Every structure is written in structure tokens, then in C-alpha cells.
Amino acid sequence: MNWLHYLRIHEDWNPLKPIFENDEYSVFTLMMEMDNFFRRRDAISIKNERGDRLRISNKDGTPANIENIRNRKCSINTSAKTRIIEFMRILSDLTKWEYKNENWSCWDEMKYYQFKKGDFKGDKKTLTIQNFMEFIERKPLSWAMTSGDNIEYTLEEPDKLLK
Fold first, then answer.
1. In the beta sheet, which residues pair with residue 75?
2. What mean pLDDT do residues 131-136 have?
3. Which residue among 5, 27, 97, 156 sits deepest, i.e. has the most Cβ atoms within 10 Å of its Cβ?
4. Contact criterion met (CB below 8 Å) for 103 and 50
């Protein structure tokens, strides 16, 4: 398997070495554990939201799973909070990391920022060097090339994280 060599799995310093080279797990048992993890994750998934993700905005930039927006504060809705806490408990159960509810008081009284989401196709722009350079000059907060001819992005508009 070339990817194991590429990841340098066999080197002692590599944190992946004990996962792939140990007496407890064969490739088969590792695959079974991964299947178990994905099934547990999928059990807490809902339509359009996998259980290992917390969606906070829709494609048009409007809030998703956010409620009580007032005075630049907000909270995660109860359903989404329950799903993501359950996912963290799954991780805790499988990794020897201990989930402590008291360390996760971040669900309420969060700062609320609104940004602009878009993409080249929606802007009716083609992916050229000139369009890309103009786009980069806008200092996107994030961006991803989602196909050979499109970039999805987030701009700090109307709010800014840092002033």
C-alpha cells in the first residue's frame, strides 16, 4: 500500500504507527471499528446534516441551528446542541478523551457575526487569473475550490471578526 509508505506509517515518531502496526488491530478489525464509528455517527445524523458537523449557516448565509439572536449574541438550538454533544461523547468513548460537560459552556451567549457567502458561478464569473486575483484582493475569510471551474467563499461582510 503506497499510501502507508507516503504517510510514513512505519516511522517510530509517527502517531499513526500504533494504529496500523499493532497486535490488537488487523486491517480487518480496524475496518470494523471504522464501520462501527460511522454507524454511530450516522445514527445521530438528520436530513442534510451529518452527525459530526454543526451547521451554523445556510448556503445563502442565513443562520442555521442558531436562535435567540439579539444584541450580537446568540445560542445553538437545543436539537443541534444535543446532536453535537452526543458526537463528542462518541469520540470520548472511542478515544480515551474524556468529555466534560462543564468545559463546554460555549453553546449559549455566543458572539453573533454575519458574513456573506457566495461562489464564482453564482456571481457569473469564470475562473480566470484576473478574476481570481480580484477575488483574493477582497481578502476572503475562507474559500474552497469545489470544482474545476468554481470557488465557494465567505467574506467578512457585513460584519468583521477583527477591526
1. 67
2. 97
3. 156
4. no
What cell does 66 get?
Answer: 442558531
The confidence score (pLDDT) of residue 143 equals 97
- Together in a domain, 149 and 124: yes
pLDDT band with cut points at 50, 70 and 90 for residue 159: very high
How many domains is the chain built from?
3
Contact 115, 157 (CB under 8 A): yes
Considering the chain, what is the average pLDDT of its residues? 91
Q: 69 CB contacts (<8 Å, ≥6 apart)?
A: 63, 112
Does residue 124 sit in the same domain as residue 106?
no
Residue 69 and residue 92 in one domain: yes
Residues 106 and 82 in one domain: yes
C-alpha cell, 114: 454575519
Structural domain of residue 1, as residue ranges?
1-43
Residue 121: the pLDDT is: 96
105 plus 158 within the same structural domain:
no
Q: At which residue does the C-alpha cell 484576473 appear?
A: 130
Residue 1 scores a pLDDT above 60: no
Do 57 and 101 fall into the same domain?
A: yes
Residues 153, 46: Cα–Cα separation, whole Å: 25
